[in-house]
Amino acid sequence: MRRSAFILLLTSLVFGQALAGQHLDSIIDDCNGCHGDQGVSRWNDVPTIAGIDAFVHSEALFIYRDEGRPCAKSKYRQGDTARTPTTMCAIAMDLDDDTIEAIAEHYAALPFVPAKQPFDAALAAKGKSIHERDCGRCHTKGGSDPKDSAGILAGQWMGYLESTFAEYAAGERDQSAAMKQKMDPLSAEDVKALVHYYASQQ
Asked: Read out DSSP for the chain?
């Protein structure tokens, strides 16, 4: 290969990588716009995504891309700046596999920060017992360990947890047979207790 051709190829590769990096940075900025700085949410109905296991996060984005989860409209709220409401399905629709994996790896490397929120101590105590009986095998360490690849429940916002439980109860989210077996018998009070238990871990 001639020197000029080699230099041209090298320049193209470097320039392409720079553009890819800028594209990812732009996407991350948009993610932070809804999920908070560094993926740490300040809003009751929006989950923190910092610290989430990369596999769990990427699988969620793939499912949203396939419209396999409810896609309620939400507003861009970083800095209380209003934007046109969008959905996770619409956001994920144009993401290719490599970009989804890169997003997931980015947030997995960031620390999870539990939400500071009020909770009922008596309900939290009841929820702890329910968790240990029904949920602790998969959601280890009280639902706080990202390494179990089951998502972080401990320290998430109560509004987000409530809506997620409701989606499972309504059959709007796919779940494993083992999880469904544990979820179906839960009463509304059981779910409320679990939500307060997860919220209590701050």
From this structure: --HHHHHHHHHHHHHHHHHHHHHHHHHHHHHHHHH-GGG---STTS---TT--HHHHHHHHHHHHTT-S----B---GGG-----B-HHHHHHT--HHHHHHHHHHHHTSPP--------HHHHHHHHHHIIIIITTTSHHHHT-GGGSS---TT--HHHHHHHHHHHHTT-S---HHHHHHHTT--HHHHHHHHHHHHH--
Closest CA to 31 of 64, 8, 5: 64
The beta-strand segments (E) located in 114-171 are none
Which residue in 98, 100, 111, 127 sits closest to 31, CA to CA? 100
Residue 181 has pLDDT above 90, yes or no: yes
112 secondary structure, DSSP code = P
What's the pLDDT score for residue 19? 37
pLDDT at 9 over 60: no
For residues 147 and 116, the model is more confident at 116
In the block, tokens 């209590």 appear at 200
Q: What is the pTM of this model?
A: 0.83
pLDDT of residue 16: 40
Contact 104, 55 (CB under 8 A): yes
> Quick one: pLDDT at residue 12?
39
Distance CA 164, CA 69 (A): 10
Residue 198 CA to residue 156 CA, distance in Å, equals 7
